Amino acid sequence: MFLTISTTGTHERPATDLGFLLHKHPDHAQTFSTSHGTAHVLYPEASVERCTAALLLEVDPVALVRRGKGKGRGGAPDSALAQYVNDRPYAASSLLAVALATVFKSALRGACKAMPERAAEPLPLRIEIPALPARGGGAELVRKLFRPAVEGGGGGGAPRWDTVEAEPVALDTAFPEWGDSRYVRLVLEGEMRLADALNQLYVLLPVLDDAKHYWVAPDEVDKLLRAGDGWLAEHPEQKLITSRYLSRRWSLTREAMERLELVRLAESEGVDVDEVDNAVDETTDTDERPVPLAEQRREAILAALRSADAARVLDLGCGQGQLVQALLKDVRFTDIVGVDVSVRALTIAGRRLRLERLGERQAGRVKLIQGSLAYTDKRLTGYDAAVLSEVIEHLDLPRLPALEYAVFGSARPRTVIVTTPNVEYNVRWETLPAGHVRHGDHRFEWTRKEFRDWAAGVAEQYGYTVEFSPVGPDDPEVGPPTQMAVFSQETNDTRTAGRGVRTDADDKTDPDDKTDSDRTTDHDSRNTRTITKEDTA
Fold first, then answer.
1. How far apart, in Å, do the first and last CA atoms of the chain sit?
2. In angstroms, what CA-CA distances link 198 with 13, 125, 157, 311, 324?
3. pTM for this prediction
4. Using a CB cutoff of 8 Å and minimum separation of 24, what contacts does 286-292 make?
5. Residue 309: which of 45, 44, 488 has the closest Cα?
């Protein structure tokens, strides 16, 4: 995969200034590692009159397959048919666009401390790409995308190429009757800022390839608008560019189009975007949607974990992974383990977390494992904190001592957070009949006193201190809807406290006992195993 950027100059303004603007010295060949191969920057020619910088990207097909499988993750749709033999190492695509953004990061921003005036000025540029895919339009589509201002007679401050050569590449020169391939040899010539040229390439390379080698997340909208600043809002093919760049995800495309329209209106009025998007007065009171209790509960748990300086966290009875997902968004939590007895629930959690689409660093932070909380488990030792969120009420009361020993006596995390419903608050639920529990699988629901008595007993037995916090609106008469206890190990670790105090429930507890209201029971999966990416695909 190859791209060259050339410019010309004079003795007063030498062409070798290109090295300053790219932040790459013309006298040195440089190498950079990327997630799918190696990028090389070198200068085939560097003189006062003419300077050419070349970017060579060597793609590792094996790494490409291992890091992403199938359409939208391994590159073009063709790669699913021929994983190790395809055009990805040779044809310009999102791989080259990402390499541009990585290697020429400062140049894309237009930043150059050595020559800020040169970075702000147009340069005579020539850019060549020998193999560029042009799906769904061929050479004509390439010309429409790279030269809209010239042919459309407008475009405001959009980058203007004087010449756009898109020469179709024959399928096989030995068999001209076969016709042309979908690839073109692209040559762009014109005067424009280097940053504008690089940003346009960053956007249009994956657009013409109509594929991306990575999952398109919501932050891609910000990347598109940032790279398209100054030209995309006025581009006649704005809708096509936006849709293809965002892999035809209609929700992201709609958001991007709405934001681009605000940019266009602001530019036409000569004002800032914020002045156009002022339909809502932030000083005026507006009706806000109440925050769901489940979300308040997660926020309370996260706050308690942060306060405890926990980095390695167990979510015991993780169900469908809502809390694990929230933990994964905070980089301070470096090791997150979700445990549940139900394989089906763990599979759903894996899909929620998009395990198959996580990068290596993110995937290394999270693990989902099957296990029963009624049995001790060596895999659960050594963690900073454990969370039992809306779990204990799903156990029969005689089985609670088994869970207590497994968590507080065997695993012994430094901090344990337990939340459970406050039965006194049930009278405030208008739709809940009197005397009923909140969920059909709840075996009990405690009053505030009952919960405090239980927590105090557990803390004393296993060498912890305990503090209590309300979750949700704290009613002066009946208290909050959810009650939370935060257990912390005492300074003098009475680890032997409670050892040997085991009940018959330790041996009789059914490993298929449900431990989360969000979970569906899987009675066919009693063997302990780890849920992998393949289980969620």
1. 31
2. 21, 11, 15, 40, 39
3. 0.52
4. none
5. 488
Q: How confident is the model at residue 445 (pLDDT cuts 50, 70, 90)?
A: very high
CA 269/CA 163 separation, integer angstroms: 31
Query: Structure tokens of 298?
Result: 């997660």
Percent of the chain at pLDDT exceeding 90: 49
Query: Looking at the predicted structure, is the pLDDT value of residue 305 above 70?
Result: yes
Residue 535 confidence (pLDDT) above 60: no
Percent of the chain with pLDDT over 70: 80
User: Mind listing the pLDDT tens digit for each residue in 75-118?
Assistant: 444 444 456 667 777 777 888 888 888 899 999 989 999 999 99
- Tracing tokens 């393949």 back to the chain, one arrives at 534
What is the b/e burial string over 103-132, where b = at least 16 CB atoms within 10 angstroms of the residue's CB?
bbeebbebebeeeeebbeeebebbbbbbbb
Cross-strand pairs, 416 = 386, 487
Contact 377, 406 (CB under 8 A): yes
> Per-residue pLDDT averaged across 384-403, rounded?
95
Q: What H or E segment, with its residue span, contains residue 459?
A: helix 448-462
Pairing status of strand 335-340 against strand 366-370: parallel
Side chain identity at residue 100, one-letter code: L
CB within 8 Å of 505: residues ≥ 6 apart: 374, 398, 399, 400, 401, 402
E strands, 67-221, in order: 123-133, 163-170, 180-192
Cα 188 to Cα 186: distance, rounded to the nearest angstrom:
7
Give me 214's structure tokens: 């990575």
Give mean pLDDT, residues 21-48: 90
Contact yes or no for 323/315 (Cβ under 8 A): yes
Q: Which of 159-168, 281-290, 303-312, 526-535 shows the lowest per-residue confidence on average (mean pLDDT)?
A: 526-535
Dig out the tokens for 3 from the structure.
């791209």
Q: At 466, which amino acid appears?
A: V
Give 482 or 440, the one with higher predicted confidence.
482
Q: At what angle do helices 194-209 and 238-245 cross, to 10 degrees?
A: 70
Secondary structure letter of residue 314 according to DSSP:
E
Measured distance CA(330)–CA(347) in Å, rounded: 22
The closest of 186, 228, 141 to 1, measured between CA atoms, is 186
CA distances to 11, 161, 194, 240, 498 from 126, rounded to whole Å, are 20, 9, 11, 26, 77
Q: Which residues contact 144 (CB under 8 A, 6 or more apart)?
A: 137, 151, 236, 237
Q: Single out the residue of 491, 321, 468, 317 nearest to residue 407, CA to CA.
A: 317
For 109, how many CA atoms within 13 A lie in the half-sphere containing its CB?
Answer: 8
**pLDDT tens for each residue of 172-199:** 889 989 988 888 999 999 999 999 999 9
